[in-house]
Amino acid sequence: MQLLGNYLSDFVSLIFPQLCAACSASLVNGEDVICTDCRYNLPLTNFHQQPDNIVAQQFWGKLNIEAAYALYYFNKGGKVQNLVHQLKYEGMHKIGNVLGDIAGRQLKQNPIFADIDYVVPVPLHKKRLKERGYNQSEHFAEGISTALGCKCETDNLVRTVATKTQTHKSRFARFENMKDVFSIVSSDRLAGKHILLVDDIVTTGSTLEACGIELLKVLGLKLSIATIAYAE
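RE: above sequence
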């Protein structure tokens, strides 16, 4: 029966091939969403091994964080951009879970992330969530939380204002665009906890900074940050 199932799977793959979300090569048995070649060759940052990495430096003097991390480098027109585009705009939310699992396995190697209590995704406004149907950062958060063995908190940090796009804005304009956009529903649930705040891409860090400012108002809260990619 197992052999028959494998033949049937191979036959279906010939007619409806599953493609790697990064490079569009056909996936083979045992591969899921991202092909083996891309899993080994995508541009990993290894920031989990570098406490003073460039993402962490973006928040120096702005947020009191424990650590900051990005899984990949983002290059325009590259494979990581393909992944993020399909995750955000093509309905392939499973990409987020897969990348979250990869990131979570890396983060487990750093003791700073050993006591994470909640993984919290940057929220979408309810209008944007209705349009897209899902929050891409939430799927990334789910993958990380499963790998770390902690909870994913998705309904406490909320976006109360629907902001305009951040594209082509300066860092200052981006931050001004994000001021007073987020709020906390229940501070008690987060008090004294180590929170891992996650998003898809970090560029200037203005969105994460705005979220972090609200989170750090909670008594005794410790904050770390993780993203899928860092864009220079």
